UniProtKB/TrEMBL annotation:
CDD domains: PcpA_C_like. It holds the Pfam family Glyoxalase. InterPro entries: Extradiol_RC_dioxygenase, Glyas_Bleomycin-R_OHBP_Dase, Glyas_Fos-R_dOase_dom, VOC_core. This is Glyoxalase family protein. It comes from Paenibacillus methanolicus. Residues 7-131, 152-269 form the VOC domain.
Amino acid sequence: MTNRTAGIHHITAFARNPQENVDFYSGVLGLRLIKKTINFDNPHTYHLYFGDQAGMPGTIITFFPYPHARQGRVGGGQVGVTTFVIPQGAMTYWEERLALLGVNATNTERFGETYLQFSDPDGLRLELVERQEGAAAASTKGGIPAAMAIKGFGGAVLYSVDHASTMRTLEQVLGFVKVGEDANYARFQSTAELGNRVDVPLRDMEWGASGAGTVHHIAWRARDDQDHEQWRNIAIENGFKATPIVDRNYFKALYFRENGGILFEIATDPPGFARDEEPEKLGEKLMLPEWFEGQREEIEANLLPVTTVAPY
């Protein structure tokens, strides 16, 4: 195994109401809506991307909002918890902010770190952790001071139906390094400053059920198109049924389901989210790939209106 992913590229989840989704992730958490587009596999549904000011890999959480989606059940075969990093000394600010905005949160510990855990309006499980790594936010939404703002991903907790297999894939296929165990988890680390730590519970989890409030897939980083081709070969050589490479306009992607049931994607860092919008205008209007432009009127008529002006 010669390749090592730098870490998490993005995490994609299911939601219901797109406006409620924007209000929470931009208005409450202060992330920037960096791209308002559609699910390329289902063009009558939004695909909303939130991240740092530039939409850098390692900061991007994305959503497919289905207004009539069933409620999902978090469990095996999913990312169980998505971790965001905040600056050291920012935890009290976030405890107070979430309480003020009516978001119930609790503290827990793992690997000697304190985590503030809570859920979004659809029940997606999230947590904040203080760490030094990662650049401070260039700007924020929701009136959050830059010195307190979310930097990007800290990592994720993977809920596996076969935790031993998932851990082997992290180490032997993706190139993560196992850096420790505590009473309940194993921790794996990659090379990036953000999206670099993955925790796996040391037990097999019962299967979850897909729906609002659950993660669809987690994407790992590839440097470029050449690296991406190598990752596809590596996945196939390790017995996974990797999809052909598909163009997602802002990155190229391939997918395979690892043996613990979790859908993995490998996504290229380039070309990025400024390929069809000016950097200062990211997320301001509905962007369609060229192959859907001829259907714009029909597509827009089937989408709920969304304003990117956050209420907080």
